[in-house]
Amino acid sequence: MKPPERILVIMLRRIGDVVLTTPAVRALRKAFPEAQIDFLTEPPCHELLAGVHEISNILVYRKSWFNYLYWFWRLRFRRYDWVVDYMGNPRSAMLTAATRAPLRAGPARSSHSWAYTDRMKQPPKTLYNPQEKIWMLRALGLTVDESDCLPGIASSVDAEEFAQKALVRMRMPKAPLVGFAPASRRATRQWPAESYAALGRLLRDRRGVNILICWGPGERELAQSIRDGIGEAAFLAPETTDLRQAGAVLGRCDLIVTNCNGPRHIATARGVPTLTIHSSSDPASWNPPDRDRHPVVRREDLHCIACRKNECPYALECLSELSPGKVCEEAEVLLSRIGSATA
Questions:
Q1: For a disulfide at 328, which of 96, 102, 202, 301, Cβ 3.0-4.6 Å?
Q2: Which range of residues forms the domain containing residue 48?
Q3: What is the pTM of this model?
Q4: From residue 56, how far is each of 51, 195, 199, 340 by CA, in Å?
Q5: In a domain, 212, yes or no
C-alpha cells in the first residue's frame, strides 16, 4: 500500500486519554511527514490539542445525534487513506467504518472489530499507555520509536499570561510551588481530602513550600476543604475557563502531587515532575517510565493493589491507610532531586 496522504486519528475522550494519544500522532508524523493528519475528539479535549504542530486539523465531535449524523456523512467525503481508531467503542467504530478508508485500524480487543480492516493487538507485556499506542502501530507495518513516549501539548500566550497574572495577584511568598490535583471521577482513585491537607501541612513545615490546590468544574468545594485544612501557605488555584489555562497553571508548579487523573497527564505533557498516588490504577500503564522524575507511591503490601476496579469490595485501604507521612517522604526526595537538577 502506498504511503497515506490523509490520516484520521480518533480518540473522543477522556482528557487524559486524549493527551496520552499525542505521542502516537507524533510517531505517525515522523513516519509520514508530508501527510495530512487530522484528530477527531470531543469537547473540551480539543482545547489541549490546539497548537500541537503534528496535527493538521482538529475535528470536534459533539455528543448529539445531529452531530453524530453530521460526522457520519462528512467523514466519508474527506477521503482518508488511513483511519486509526484508538477508542474502539460503538460510536468510534461506526465513524471509522463511515470513512470507507482503504485502511481502517482499531483495537483487536474491541467487540466492534468488524469496522476495521486492520486489528491492532496490544503488546505482550504491560507498557505505559502512550508506548502501547505507539507499539500498536506495528500492526500497520510501521517501524516506530517507543522511547519517544512522553505526551506533549502546546502552550498559548494568552493562557500563560492568565496564569502569570493570577499567581502574581495571590502574593505568595517566594518559595517552591507544589501543586495538588486531588480530584478524581472514581472513588477508587481519590486519596482523601484530609490526607491531602495533612500532606500540605507536612510539606509546608518541613520544606517551606507554597501549596496550590488545583480544581476544575464541580471540584471547588473539595479544593477549599483541603486549603482550609492546610491553612498558612495554601492557596486555591484560580478559576480557569478552558483546559489551556488549566495547563498553564499546572505548568507554573515545581511539582504536582496527584491522583491518577487527567490533570497529572496534562502536567506531564507540560514537563512538570509528578508524584502520583496509585491505588486501583496500574502505574505500569499510566505512569511514565522515568521514575526519577515521575515516581509513584502506593500500598505495595496489599494483595488487591492495582485491581483496576471502579468499586472497592473492601474498605479502600489502599487510599484511607496510605499515610501522608509516606507520601511526604517521597515528595521530599523528588523536591531534592529537582533542586539538584536546577542548581
A1: 202
A2: 6-140
A3: 0.95
A4: 10, 44, 43, 39
A5: yes
